[in-house]
Amino acid sequence: MNITMKSLRVMPLSSRAVAFALSALLFAALHAYAQTDPLPSWNDGPAKKAVVDFVQTTTTQGSPKFVPPAERVATFDEDGTMWVEHPMYTEIMFTLDRVAELAQAHPEWKDQPPYNAVVNRDREAMAKFTETDMLKLVAVTHAGVSTDEFAAAAKAWIAKAKHPRWKRPYTELTYAPMQEVMRYLRANGYKTYIVSGGTQPFMRVFTDEVYGIPADQVIGTALATKFTPSNALMLEPKLLLNNNNAGKAEDIYLFVGHRPQAAFGNSTGDAEMLAYSRGGNGATLQMLVLHDDAEREYAYGPAQGLPDTKVGTFPQSLYDEATKNGWTVISIKNDWKRVFSFDQ
Amino acid sequence: MNITMKSLRVMPLSSRAVAFALSALLFAALHAYAQTDPLPSWNDGPAKKAVVDFVQTTTTQGSPKFVPPAERVATFDEDGTMWVEHPMYTEIMFTLDRVAELAQAHPEWKDQPPYNAVVNRDREAMAKFTETDMLKLVAVTHAGVSTDEFAAAAKAWIAKAKHPRWKRPYTELTYAPMQEVMRYLRANGYKTYIVSGGTQPFMRVFTDEVYGIPADQVIGTALATKFTPSNALMLEPKLLLNNNNAGKAEDIYLFVGHRPQAAFGNSTGDAEMLAYSRGGNGATLQMLVLHDDAEREYAYGPAQGLPDTKVGTFPQSLYDEATKNGWTVISIKNDWKRVFSFDQ
Questions:
Q1: How far apart are CA A173 and CA A175, in angstroms?
Q2: Residue A4, min C-alpha distance to chain B (Å)
Q3: CA-CA distances (angstroms) from residue A13 to A18, A20, A303, B27, B62?
Q4: Any chain A CB within 8 A of the CB of B88?
Q5: Cys-Cys crosslink for B260: which of A40, A298, B70, B73, Cβ 3.0 to 4.6 Å?
Q6: What residues contact A54, with CB distance under 8 A and at least 6 apart?
Q7: Residues of chain B neighbouring A279 (CB-CB closer than 8 A)
Q8: pLDDT tens digits, one per residue of B220-248
Q9: DSSP annotation string for B43-65
């Protein structure tokens, strides 16, 4: 609100008084806003401090570890870092539901592994799926359609699917504290990317709405596409980018062109991304979310004596690597005041 | 400049008069600026009109072909569209120079094709290079080093190399009219990308300086990289993305996530990118630069009876495709008032 000379001259005196009063109010409000905690869902502690220190050090002009705005990039893993990944990765739930849906046009799947296990909801057989089985399922559910058709299917699913424990859409099961970090970084000139083992076409249908992250800042596992004479792009059953482990560092270079200044993950698949980030100039920040809160979310590791898991494994070796390298481990139990935005 | 009541009150009367005079001046200057032609290097004609109409139609609120800011993407081919590609693609010149440089550590190349042809500057043998030969040269010049080492080599070359005809750095041989289109689109909310058959690591060393395009908006042919335990990314002699022809449409989807609203090219390798752009919602714009000005630049096609070439081929079939599809062909001779910014 800028009260100019000209606008004041045409106002009657009483209006001028109101304008000045509003001005004062606005000033007070802005002042209060500037002092508001950018991370209200975090308990005070080393994790919160690491985030705030990083932002202040890299964005304060004259700081020896100042990072120019053009280089400010932060990368976030999706499953287990930005939203819930237990009891099973969201995209696997989508894949299984889609197999069941597509099975209506494929009566032969009823007796054909691995499809029959999904069609017959044979949990025992599904538990024994090999990587080849999973790739077969991904091929039939994620390929053979145009990019537009796939996006429509994924969008429809994400709009109606619900998490078995909270009975809420998966898009609500995003961690409020991590959303705050994302917004805090963006407010300080950081460009934020999702860098996930999940597929890029799947994630792109919700990242804008859930995180305010546009399609061109979503890096994921990618199938090859084929441009057709009818001016469509068809998804092919052929892996182009495997965005896990070293693939995360390699794909960040492919999409971004340089190391991220900050990187956030929660499992073995994120280690190389964090290491790549650590090599940057100026201050850098690496953080790993440790799921140690069975009550409010889940508890799994097996680091620190937590139960073992195949979904988002965080082994003790990764914990030790974090300690050695100066990466910060976030304890959900101790560092987060609340987990979800619907928590009180 | 916003002259507030408060700032005016503390000024002596003479300063207030100066402030008002400055205000008036600023207003006049801004007004003149707003009316300045955004495309001064273009002659009036259908090509210039196509650009201006597209920008006005897609950015005017309430226009039936309005494009929301989040969807405003424009893609530009590099060689022959943004800068000179004759007598030979700039990156090929770099590749040959780099082979000669690396040959000092490879005495065995003196007798080993295809390297010996380059080392001995045997133009006849080079003219007969097959695609396999070129890939071998790209492998030794673009791989086997870290991404940082490659960038340093490319940066050093581009800083000193000169075009054989103009004796100027290649980075000065960019087309002023196309730079104006880029800036005009950006000023109207368009995100501009380079989408080139050249390699991404090579282009990224100059696109920011030459076009104001950051590394994450450079799409190109890409070799695979490998993340190493020493926290470096090594370039591998393995093609990951072939960013030509259909590859351009496919890679735009990979990097951007949707069709570009406008696309600019100059040869057969750009046809699919333009077709992909044409499928978008709202108004779209596709343009092809025809090199028909031997005096100020080069003349080649072979469309419209121009001399044939293997570097940036624009055949009659592409010209006919453009006419059929409503793509605009830019005649350098007729549409451009000047070609380079150093032209008068």
A1: 7
A2: 5
A3: 9, 11, 69, 28, 39
A4: no
A5: B73
A6: A262, A283, A284, A285
A7: 231-232
A8: 999 999 999 999 999 999 999 999 999 99
A9: -SSHHHHHHHHHHHHHHSTT-TT
% pLDDT > 70, chain B: 90
Question: Given pLDDT bands bounded at 50, 70 and 90, which one contains residue B200?
Answer: very high
Q: Omega of the bond prior to B164 within 30 degrees of 0, cis?
A: no
Instruction: Report CA-CA distances (Å) from B56 to A35, B47, B52, B60, B150.
Output: 42, 15, 6, 6, 42
Cβ atoms < 10 Å from Cβ of A289: 27
Q: Write down the pLDDT at residue B7.
A: 41
Distance CA B230, CA A121 (A): 45
CA dist., res. B264 & res. B267, Å (int): 10
Its ipTM equals 0.89
Answer whether residue B114 shows pLDDT above 90: yes
- Kindly calculate the radius of gyration of chain B based on its CA atoms and give it in whole angstroms: 23
* First-to-final CA distance of chain A: 35
Region of poorest pLDDT, from A44-58, A111-125, B7-21, B182-196:
B7-21
With CB atoms and an 8 Å threshold, state whether A257 touches B204. Answer: yes
Give me A308's structure tokens: 């073992």
Say if residues A215 and A204 touch (Cβ distance below 8 Å). yes
> What is the block-wise mean pLDDT of chain A (344 residues), using blocks of 10 residues?
39 58 64 76 98 96 92 97 97 95 94 94 90 90 97 98 98 98 98 97 98 98 96 96 97 97 98 93 93 98 97 97 97 98 90
Chain A residues closer than 8 Å to B276 by CB: 227, 231, 233
DSSP labels, A80-109: TTTB---SS-HHHHHHHHHHHHHGGG-GGG
Task: Please tell me whether the overall predicted TM-score, pTM, comes out greater than 0.95 for this model.
Answer: no
* DSSP designation for A144: S
Nearest alpha carbon to residue B136 among B219, B226, B237, B280: B237
Which of A227, A230, A251 is the mutation pick for testing B, counting most B CBs within 10 A?
A227
Strands (E), A165-230: 191-199, 218-227
C-beta atoms of B70 and A214 within 8 A = yes
Decide if B11 touches A, using CB distance below 8 A: no
Distance CA(A115)–CA(A129), nearest Å, equals 11
Where would I find the beta strands (DSSP E) of chain A?
A: 73-76, 191-199, 218-227, 233-241, 262-265, 285-290, 328-331
Would an 8 Å CB–CB cutoff place B257 in contact with chain A? yes
Report how far apart the first and last C-alpha atoms of chain B are (Å, whole number): 35
